[in-house]
Amino acid sequence: MRLARVPAFLLLVAAGVLGTAQPAGAATQPDAEYLSPAHALNLTIIAAAHTASGQSASSCIRKVARQLERDHRKLAAQENTVAARLDLELATTVADDQRRQLVALAAKAGKKGYDAAWLQFQRQQHQEYLKLVTGDVAKSASPAVESVANGAKPVIEMDLRMVTGQCKDATGTPSVDTGAGGMVADARQTRSRVALALIALGLLLLLVGKSVPVRRRLLGIGALGVGLVMLLGGAVHDTGQVPKAAVGPQEREAAVPPVELKVPGLLTVRVQPVAAGGDGRLQVPATADVGWWAAGAAPGAQGGTVLLAGHVDTARGRGVFAKLSEVPMDARVAVTDGAGEQHWYRIVARRTYRQNNLPPDLFNGSQKPRLALVTCTGSYDHAAHRYSDNLVLYGVPLD
Known about the structure:
Keywords: Hydrolase, Membrane, Signal, Transmembrane, Transmembrane helix. This protein is α+β, with helices and mostly antiparallel strands.
């Protein structure tokens, strides 16, 4: 009975990840040469992961298998979306060779050696997939297909680490360390000290002495006012209502990865897909680019959080998100995907969280689509080269 269910599940896998976008052009040869084998690999990885999630004796294998299935369903859905726009038909079932391998692997379930065989099989599939996304075919494909390949790379690398050697449960909430210079915190601290000095001076001019001359009173009021403006104006306060998120079954990620973020009047930057490294930290670019959590939602998806993270500062200077705290509520933000389509969001909330204590739903899905812009804030530990807090701006789609 167990083996008989495997081919049937393969059909369900294919049906479950098909996109619904309408044709919008013709595929080039590199497009087809990338999308077809990439999609075949995803279907195979999903099927093997699904079997292990229910039949492995190892809790680590079961947990990692569920993560792999979620990750590769998203990748497969992105491939289907782009393929449909290019009028390219992808396979709907696992190829015969892969199906035979899956049946042989499933036959070992419940027996000694199944977990090791499953890890080896997934390693081989991910290594082949990684070779494909970093090859010349992906680089010469159309922009939309190239963005899908670029978005797949960090996810494959992250998942590959989980199945290399012994099973590694790396499915916890990543930390977002986006500050390594401390200059923004130092500038904020200097501003606060100057503000407090002006406030003290103003109070001194206004309160000391039995009678206060008019000129002295005006100077005192001016110093007090400037000090209060500096002190209160530099503070970052929580505001707005965070769009609700519910951890649970994730909606299909039929969308194209982002390539650009635009905050009118503040910044326009490139977006690089990133994932969590072996240390559990999001691998945010050290350049002037912003990192997109590639295991999460893409702009235009029907559900999930589009998480973009950027440095507030680095050892070389101020970072791309140095002024993120200055973005006002109701500001409009545009995220452009690899197909050239702009997705607009309205900023509705600002929150500060302690480092290593970001809400898990930022990473593992939400029922409604939303945007999260993340950087560092708070005090800076010069010895550890780390900020105390994370700043998150939340946005909701306008379209």
